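re the bet — no i am not wrong, look at it urself. input seq straight from the record:
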Amino acid sequence: MNPIWRATGLMVFGVLMAFTGVAWGQWDIPSIRNAIRTQIEGEGHPSQMTVCDNQIHCLVVLPLFYEQRDYRPAWIGEDGISPNALALVKAIEGASQEGLAPSDYHLEDIRKMVSGDFFSNSPGGFVEPGELAEMDIFLTDAFLLYGSHLLAGRVDPIKLDPLWQADRRKADLVQILEDALAGKQVEAALQSLLPPHVEYQKLRQALGRYQEMARKGGWGRIPEGTRLKAGERGKEVLLLRERLTAEGFLLPDQEKADMELFDPALKQALLNYQAEHGLEPDGVPGKRTIACLNTPVEARVRQIAVNMERCRWLSHDLGARHVRVNIAGFRLDVMENGRSVMHMRVIAGKPFHNTPVFSDRITYLVMNPSWEVPPSIARTKILPKARKDKNFLRSQGFRVSSGWGDKRESIDPDSVDWKQITPSTLRYRFTQDPGPLNSLGRVKFMFPNQFQVYLHDTPEKDLFAKAIRDFSSGCIRVEKPVDLAEYLLKNHPQWPRDRVLSVLTGEERETYTVIIPDPIPIHILYCTVWVDDSGLVHFGPDIYQGDILLDRALNEPARAS
């Protein structure tokens, strides 16, 4: 045990003895035990329990914990308050390092309890067993609540967004607490519940840096309406230089430059900043760029905390080899043992056509696919173009049909007066043949799911040059489909690299459905903050307003996860 904490513990015990007037060896454990039983059984597994006017949160797990130990106190022994209680206080004091609020876990009250202040008003200095029982329950609730939040998050994501399907981690918190108490490893037990992913650790380190920036007063503002360009000089240039240096976009040796000159190094730093914040990288501090630069450091602290919460929703094992798509970052990475071995830009769903968040496995791909146009897209996109241009359907390779199954029949698009068809009267179906104009491009990557979302190529390559790439109706368009297909089929004996390239880049239009020999997990995520291998913190756009909703939920009263 840390000598400082040992000394503090002895001092605390002495203070409590002075308040209670009871020798440590005389504490009546059987009476405390009966009081715990009475408190829990008397409530009858309640929907609500309060201790000292504070709500107990873990109303399912907490009674189970005490039942399994026959209601013996967990934090109190015959010699008084266990050192485990002091360790719990220390662990909860560190909750802010995890982007959580220590006050959610009864911190001030349990501090008073272990210091003796909780009992200072007891008549004659005598502490009732019921008071000690309440103290024990309170400490147990604090551990279980904090542990559940570290393990699976403070907020249930599906309550915020039904399109968010998280695979939250699970563990036996009752057994974890029992083992922690027996081994005097309370802090270590809570630390073991943290997400194991390197991304979480990077965010945790970033949070500490930004919290320190906030404690030091953050960064200065750049006056709105500032107009600067390379080669100019002035005090606004100095403000811009200091602002970019604060977040590491300017290196120390660049700080020694002519501070009021907008030199090439400063422009490059600004270009990097814009590229990593979802801004058009033009090297000019325009209105949107200045608004981003002027975002307070406290807001960035909250944004990091929000994304740490999302990490707590992830499965324990993402797979040593997996595909990861970050919707908010518009990026796909193929990961092997924690390292990105392939990355590319993606186009995600536009607001109100959100790309959902979930995990699955890519099991097959289709080369030269046809496209069965979904009814909603047929009404909103295809029909208006057909009404405007009678040659649109033929020129874009669309076939028209009516009916379903055996009753489906082909329709000559020229036989239909499309100007007389409205979205509400549209009964036709559109199928786009394989080819260079096909909206799915030359290949689609399938992981059958309830959302009917998949990865696919696109003929609209120019869209990948945009900073904000939310143009799809929910599916994900990938920048390098041939590279991804080649990677997924590298162990397929019938699909060597030259054959893949021939089908996907040549004139052939025959459709092939190919089973992937080693299905690979895919995780579609929504991360508005991430940290690269150099330690640079990237802040992406909150295109679906998910940060706003989650931050609001994190500020609501705590409850068991």
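see?? The longest strand covers residues 512-525. told u. also Residues 219-295 form a domain with the Muramoyl-pentapeptide Carboxypeptidase; domain 1 fold (CATH 1.10.101.10). so pay up
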